[in-house]
Specification:
There is one protein chain. The chain is an alpha+beta fold. The chain has two domains: 3-82, Winged helix-like DNA-binding domain superfamily/Winged helix DNA-binding domain (Arc Repressor Mutant, subunit A), CATH 1.10.10; 91-130, no CATH class. It is 34% helix and 20% strand. It has four helices and six strands. Strands 1-3-2 form a three-stranded antiparallel sheet. β4 and β5 form a beta hairpin. It is globular, with a radius of gyration of 17 Å. The two termini are 31 Å apart.
């Protein structure tokens, strides 16, 4: 998905198209890493000084619910990044210093065996944390 697709999805789902939402989507898309709500708030305040942190967080949650963003939790804080492809999910290697993300090809779930009888897997998440070559 790209920014145009994200904005079209918002409209198709009946949500208002606003300059703030467009700016948030572009802000996160331009970062090729996970970002915090505080970071988005800091960037957005430059153009929208009366914008509240609650508005940022509500929109981030909405974008996640719509599949525009994905999130993870790291050191007790929720982080957001632009979602990968529309047709498949991705897993990532995440630098714990700069939060740059590198997609992992394939899915580790393909190698999961011994799922207990009667257990239906409905979703999963797989992330590897460490230091990228620039931060090591």
């Amino acid at each position: 998905m790209n920014t145009k697709g994200a904005l079209q999805l918002l409209k198709a789902k009946g949500y208002k198209y606003t300059g703030q939402r467009e700016s948030m989507i572009h802000c996160i898309y331009d970062e090729k890493r996970y970002v915090t709500a505080k970071e988005v708030f800091g960037v957005m305040q430059k153009d929208y000084p009366n914008l509240s942190f609650d508005t940022i967080y509500r929109n981030l949650s909405l974008f996640e619910d719509l599949g525009i963003l994905e999130s993870t939790e790291f050191e007790g804080e929720r982080l957001f990044r632009f979602a990968g492809s529309d047709d498949h999910h991705q897993h990532h290697i995440i630098c714990i210093k700069c939060r740059n993300t590198i997609p992992i090809e394939g899915c580790p779930m393909n190698n999961i065996f011994n799922v207990p009888d009667g257990f239906e897997i409905t979703g999963h998440k797989f992330e590897i944390y460490g230091y990228c070559k620039d931060c090591a």
